[in-house]
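Case study: GNAT family N-acetyltransferase.
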Amino acid sequence: MLTHRPITTHQPYYSQVCQTMREAFPPAELAPMWLLNLFAHRKAVHFSAFFDHDQFCGLCYYFESQNHVLIAFLAVNSQARGHGYGSQILDAVKHQTMGKTIVLSAEARDASAPNALQREKRFHFYQQNGIFETGHSFKEGGVRYALLASRATNVKTYHALLRQLLLGLGSKRTGTSPAK
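Here is what the predicted structure looks like once written out:
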């Protein structure tokens, strides 16, 4: 069973968190770490590192509203992939949020994309974990994103959650890489 700890700049595992973020997400999809840490001071924002005993396995950054959970970032440490940690992290989030509708976006399926296989694997992972394509998508920064959720939802709800997370400041996709 995984345990989780809050992510702050003073934790000994903070550099592993930053490295995992850089490895798991393209620069255009990352928000600055200082901004993620700042927003994580809010009660509705959760930024957690997950551990199997003392081994850092991954992280999740999500916003919780009354009825929804917006997962902005979920990543597994590259040395820990393939051991079910991503599913365990999602299960922990589901347990902590008591059955709220989980909402997230992912690069849409595109057989001609350079990372087409990675995209397919991502969709398969979420489907195995009860999070499905909603049939809705949107385009941001020249990239098409599919909306995924554990229950029916729409792009309007996704963007409203994103605005709440970001306090109305704009998109999570700022084009800035996380820094230590």
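For the exam, be able to explain this: The chain is about 30% helix and 30% strand.
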